Amino acid sequence: MxxxxxxxxxxxxxxxxxxxxxxxxxxxxxxxxxxSLRVQRSRIIGLIISDIQxxxxxxxxxAVEDVAQQRGYAVFLCNSDEDVDKESTYIELMLAxxxxxxxxxxxxxxxxxxxxxxxxxxxxxxxxRRVDGVPMDTVxxxxxxxxxxxxxxxxxxxxxxxxxxxxVPGASTGAERHQGYVTALAHHGVPLLPELVRSGLPRSQNGxxxxxxxxxxxxxxxxxxxxxxxxxxxxxxxxxxAGLGIPDDVALAGFDEMDWMFLVKPALTVVMxxxxxxxxxxxxxxxxxxxxxxxxxxxxxxxxxVKVRESSRRAAMRA
Amino acid sequence: MxxxxxxxxxxxxxxxxxxxxxxxxxxxxxxxxxxSLRVQRSRIIGLIISDIQxxxxxxxxxAVEDVAQQRGYAVFLCNSDEDVDKESTYIELMLAxxxxxxxxxxxxxxxxxxxxxxxxxxxxxxxxRRVDGVPMDTVxxxxxxxxxxxxxxxxxxxxxxxxxxxxVPGASTGAERHQGYVTALAHHGVPLLPELVRSGLPRSQNGxxxxxxxxxxxxxxxxxxxxxxxxxxxxxxxxxxAGLGIPDDVALAGFDEMDWMFLVKPALTVVMxxxxxxxxxxxxxxxxxxxxxxxxxxxxxxxxxVKVRESSRRAAMRA
DNA sequence: ATCTCTGCTGAAATCGATTACAATTGCAGC
DNA sequence: GCTGCAATTGTAATCGATTTCAGCAGAGAT
Lengths: 319, 319
What we know:
Two copies of one chain form a homodimer.
Chain A: H1 13-26, H2 32-39, E1 44-49, H3 55-70, E2 74-79, H4 84-96, E3 101-104, H5 112-119, E4 124-127, E5 137-141, H6 143-156, E6 162-167, H7 172-187, E7 197-200, H8 204-215, E8 223-226, H9 229-241, E9 251-255, E10 269-272, H10 275-291, E11 299-302, E12 305-307
Helix pairs in contact in A: 3-10, 6-7, 8-9
The first copy, chain A, binds a DNA duplex through residues 1-3, 6, 9-12, 15, 30-40.
């Protein structure tokens, strides 16, 4: 009798003892599958991120795991690989596995799948990126503001032809950081030059190729803003191979700190996003929603800070 | 009637059509939980790695996911965080979730849990690290040989006081790389100095602290061998902060390439392990075992290569 | 015409836990 | 002594898919 487990009342000590002993004897191991089937939910949290190889997301994973484990949940992690179809497939899979809820970094800011989830009362939290038009819990950082701040910093340091290598605009991060870039230029009266703006999937290789494109122009940029850490790595490689010096030939400022960055000379100016905290908050929001599925959706926006270092040092006066 | 799905024979076209239509109408979504309960196994592969923030393992994850997805499996990823208890807990959890099989990077080379798994015919593959005394599928790299090769290289380049920062000997990688180090010294008649050998959990912070310890000695090493990529990062930070030059003050050679290493000057000499291939092979072994649980266990040992770069450049002649 | 066999279909058992419900006992209150 | 309630425990329904079993219709053989 399973009343013994889960400490239900109305069981005599004698019986409780007998049951416990038998359990030990048989090396009994309850099937979570059967339990999930009966209870119609499990103690599993689904976590779908868009790139397992991106240190930003591994920090998020770490945080979600810590919170989940503390509360007795396990984490089912999947890698959507910036692919909307993979993402949808994994969401369906999670659903079929009866997860208690899921945290997703949506590849595209419009996806009908989320509307369905919300309507069906499936606890779900969007992290890092927003989903348009669906009232759901969301944890993001202040991308527009942070991008604007770091680009403004470049402008204030004397840079005028500021290139931008951004993630695809389909993801809200890409779009918002682009907007921050545009806003900063407008605010300082610096003309927006479309030929200096590139976007692609946030992968190191793309950062490399797009930066090469910028540098190959007849009037190359005097500074580059990268909208993602992998793009930053690619940009560094391109600048490096082009034999250019930072910041004298071209300044560089990007998103996200990485743990080896102290090695890079000159030190890089970056927007520091609170990755771990984002994961924590997302996990907490999810657990709250699991408890109370009817709570009003919350949108948490965390502050990022610009860490100014040498890669954006004041430009020498130019002719 | 579920004979329609899974294309069983003995169903008329009329019925098949009717069923399919109803399925569409109701937006029917089969419960994998119920299926798992009935069939006593699922289409999920468990993957337990010891550090989600280690790029080596994220490559492995990537590979396992690619193979799994191709074969219609989903991956349930967990992070044991180098903690034997967490690892065992997750294994139990996977078992209770009726995974089809699991791939684990064992934190300790002796763990009775694995014997039980193998005896109970649960498909399981050890990756990156061995488990002693249990006949199971294993995918590792040739750690002893690779460590020996890279340390020999240091010796041949004129270094004599070679320090070692290794992972804990409980994990087979730590022990084997240590053995490779010892072998190389012995082979070249270089005395083994115990005070130059340190080990700890493979984390960046430990690499930092242990390297500081080595450097603080009255007779500090003229070269350091690091047995893991995170330890390498830590060692770099320590050397960096100590204001020492590589390789003139102290040479450095370690394990594992990382994608940003082209940025580090001088370029680092490293052992390149085929991380992605290890993941692939492990996934393939697992899938084979799922199909045939009685196959004899295989041990795959992959070759690593030493990538010689500037951080181990020939030492200037010393007094 | 009867029997068999094949092709197909519906009904029912099954997986292992949870949980609702019924049955039993003991004990207090009237 | 009888009723009523609480404490305890056994029984059975349930979750949703798979799978076995039995039954039925029609074709072909005898």
